[in-house]
Structure formats: C-alpha cells, structure tokens
Amino acid sequence: MNRTNRKGLLGAAVLALVATAVLAALSGNTANETGRVAAVTPAMAEARAAQGKVAFEATCSGCHSAKPGENGTGPSMFGVLGRKAGSLDGYGYSPAMSGSSVIWSAESLDKHLADTKNFIPGNSMGRFFAGVEDQATRSEIIAYLATLK
After folding, report:
1. Banded model confidence at residue 39, pLDDT cuts 50, 70, 90
2. C-alpha of 72 from chain center
3. Which of 8-12, 25-29, 67-71 has the lowest mean pLDDT?
4. Is pLDDT above 50 for 117?
5. How many Å apart are CA 138 and CA 141, to the nearest integer?
6. Which end of the chain is more exposed for a tag (fewer CB within 10 A), N or C?
7. What is the pLDDT of residue 118?
C-alpha cells in the first residue's frame, strides 16, 4: 500500500469516528476512545437540561408552568415524571386524560409530545397543539422536566 492510499484510509477512519461521535452526541450519548457509546456525563446531562429549558420556554410555557402549583391553560409540569396522567390536584383535566392509565416517564412523555392528539385520544391538548416533531428537542424538553422535582 502506498503512502497516498494510507492517508486516504486514515482520513476515512477519522471521518467515521467523528460521524459516530456526532451521531452518539445527538442521541444524548458520547463515543469513548474505543468507539463504543459511553454514558452521558453529568455535565452533558446538565447541558441537555439547559437546552431543554430553552425549548420548554419557547414551546410549552405558553400553557404550562414549571413552578409547583402554578397551572395555566395546561397543568404545571413540576414533578411530572412519575406522576399519573390527569392526576395533579387543582387542575381540570379532560375525561380522556384523567381516565388514562399512563404514568409519565421519559418514554411516555416522548410519545405524547410526538403526537399529542393520538397518544391519549380525546385529550384537550391534542385539539390545538400537534406536538414537537423534532426528536432531539423532545429529548431536551424531557431532560429539563426531569430536573423539576
């Protein structure tokens, strides 16, 4: 193998490693030196939550508060993870939401934010808010909601 071919292969290998790292970072993880996806560091989780706060304020805060006991058009999102859908005292939910058996987790929130109309059919939010199309944005919003305890 001549020197030019080795440089080309090295460049392709570097490009593949960079692409793997970028894709992993976009999914909330990072590639370590072996090329395997490593766990999210606390600093990365904090940065994702900070991005999620910005996304929440831009997308959700017109109807939802992040403060405990402060409901708007929609219920407060404070402490939403682990809560049964439609169960926050002091908020008047639709029969569909209060009758749901959903417990809000990262997975169920992602599904709801992706398709608010059909995840819990008949809920009020689904009538006027289509959802958050971008998966990364949904993930960031959920990361932020997880900090509200």
Report:
1. low
2. 21
3. 8-12
4. yes
5. 5
6. N
7. 97
